[in-house]
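Retro notes
What went well: the complex prediction finally ran end to end.
Inputs used:
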Amino acid sequence: MSKVRLKRSQIITIVKFPIILIVLFFVLFPFFYLVVTSIRPAGEFLENTNILPRSFTLDHYREVFDGQKGLLYLKNSLVVTGTVVLISIVVGTMAGYALVRSRFRQSIVLTIIFILIFIRFYPRISIVVPWFLIMNRLHLLDTVWAVIILHLGLTIPFVVWLMYTFFKGVPMELEECASIDGAGFMRRFISIVLPLSLPGIASASIFTAFLSWNEFLLSSAVTRESAKTLPVVIAGYITDKGVVWGPMMAMSTLIVLPMILFALFLQKYLIRGMMMGAVKE
Amino acid sequence: MLKPLHWSRHDRKWVNLFLFPALFFVLFIQAGPLFYSIYLSFQDWILLSSGSPQGFVGLTNFKNATSDPVFIQSLKFTGFLTITTVPFQLLLGTLLAFLASGQSRFLQMSRALLVLPMVVAPVAIGTLWRLMFNDTAGPINNHFLNFLNLSGPLWLGDPFWAKIAIVIIEIWQWTPFVFIVISSAITMVPQEILQAAQVDGASRLQIFYKIELPLLAPAFLLVIMFRTLESLLTLDSILSLTHGGPGSSTVNMTYAIYNKGLREFDLGAASAQSWMFMLVATVLIFVIFKLTIKSEKKTL
């Protein structure tokens, strides 16, 4: 009996590995091909259909940064993401903590949770037209501020939710002791709660960066030219007349790279945000 | 349930102060424009012809939507996309989660790599697969299908195959999400129960059906809801893969409203359509809320 079982588990392992390898190939190949294409000479595009190009070139990257304001767009994306992470973390951490430690009635807490989930999933397209009009009236259209404000509406609820579930797992005894010793609210928050919540904050920061860096819909609605972020720029390479392959692939590589690095080296933190309560840890 | 600290009146003030900025942002950025768009949905306003609303038109915008061929087309395609992608994502993600569970270094590394498609910008996924599907130079026709001795279709030039292309990239991008959620749900299944069942002589299949599956049910439900809603909201990858074409065969609801509002600048119609969309989404959101509360209650 046990001999049979051993054999069976060996068979499973033998079948398992090739399947996983095949899946990995399909997952990774498009990324590999993206990078290869971004360094493929323009002339080779439709003519050489081999996976690997005959020669390599950095021309597309040079073109993106020299002629096409690539540096400005990259700067926009960095400024937007950085500012959004900073503000959402401060505002969201405070609110998440207050929610856990507040003595709201159950019904109020439930309402707040519903609102957070609603904002996570409602069709964001419905605020796009209003915001386009409002930003136009405020003369903020095509400024990074417009993008930052819209992203904050998206990221803050996420951070509140993440920090809320995080703080729920933090024991209160320490705070109670400090309270008895006469430490006020702010004192307890800064010197006891914050140090304990660093893993939660790391998770929320990386997830916020992921949301803001990749966001397309809202950014494209309020930018025209000088405040475009990378996703908007990439979509702009596809016109009705055709596709600008080289620069588009160079830009796509640039936008994909940081998130891949996050996913490889800080995966635990990134994933916690993506699952958002789907699984309890 | 945690017992809250005994607050002094002073603390109460701080709690409110801590909540205020988040509340302000959420109301200002989300709620305000939502109400504005309700107002707009009853107005006749095409921005290209006039700088201000041309008056209250009742339900006209809503009625027009039901006879707008692109909108109806987009409704069908949105449904098609959800029905074709979510079951595949669920099936493949779950299979992978069981296959790749384990402690070996190889499996740990595979798990880390399998997640990659869902972390990169959907816009870039569209461009990247536009290249893969290219019918003259793309590797799918030139290498993969050629290898199988098949001649590939004109992927993005044919209404049917363009839809299939979108189905493929949606499955490619979001199967990892199912995979990662089910993977971590599997690790939550208490080992003692499985061992006890094994000792009692249950077969592997019995253990899977009678123990693991019921324990994983809540995770499955949430994953299904998450994926269903998100698939309704897809925009970026479609925009950069097919641009909605050929014709408007791959325009989904979000895309149709996006075009109405930001290309044709028919603000009234776009707002009305977005609210029709919103009603459907709200029902689903409510289900997610109920499921979340249920799982919250268990841990409280």
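What we learned: The longest helix of chain B spans residues 9-41.
What to try next: split runs per interface for comparison.
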